[in-house]
Amino acid sequence: MDVARSPSATYAFLWGVLVAAVLVAAGLLTGFLTFVNRLPAVTSGLSVVWVNLGSSSVLFLLDLIGFLYTLGRMRSAVVAGDDDEARYWSKFNLITVSLFFGIGVIYTAIGMQSALSHALGGLEPAQADSVSSWMIFERLVNGGILTALTTTIVGGIGGFALRITRHLAIGRLGRRIRGAAG
User: Fold this and answer.
1) Cα–Cα distance, 113 to 50 (Å, whole number)
2) Which residue in 14, 51, 157, 181 is a FRET match for 147, CA 20 to 30 A apart?
């Protein structure tokens, strides 16, 4: 078996990517790691992603890596004619698609709760009369409502994009997976 194509080499590579992503994310979150701005367009783009998605961007990225890995394993199993293995990776791949939607939903709830707590938390009834609607809106935005709404959009569009990608990558070969299960 060719080492470059062996499942263990692929598995080891993906674990390496996962560990590196977690270490970089932890370094960025703690402030221990900063990027030297030699590629301003790249760091500017990453900054926009981080501002709009927050820590959900790390989970979206990890889920995307898992999706691509399971998709590759499922396609290899289908091409090899191993229906049991293909069904296993197919189910795992569907879990990663559902998880992408779920990350968007959960981070929406977290962001909404944070924004509402920031906007309305600690307001006494007497203070509420003196607060304008513009101030409440500003407090909602500062509390994270835009991040909450962005994660909803990314989770929804991304989840459907993963479904379409899965269909295009497997295509008619998917009939063999469903046909063997029936």
Assistant:
1) 19
2) 14
Q: Which two tokens stand for residue 180?
A: 């063997």
User: By the 8 A CB rule, do 111 and 151 touch?
Assistant: yes
Question: Which of 144, 142, 141 has the alpha carbon at shortest distance from 110?
Answer: 144
**How many angstroms separate the CA atoms of 60 and 69, rounded?**
14
Residues 63, 46: Cα–Cα separation, whole Å: 18
Task: Convert 24-66 into a string of H (helix), E (strand) and C (coil).
Answer: HHHHHHHCCCCCCCCCHHHHHHHHHHHHHHCCHHHHHHHHHHH
Instruction: Quickly tell me which residue has 């994660």 as its tokens.
Output: 151
Contact 152, 118 (CB under 8 A): no
Taking the C-alpha atoms of residue 176 and residue 75, their distance in angstroms, rounded to an integer, is 11
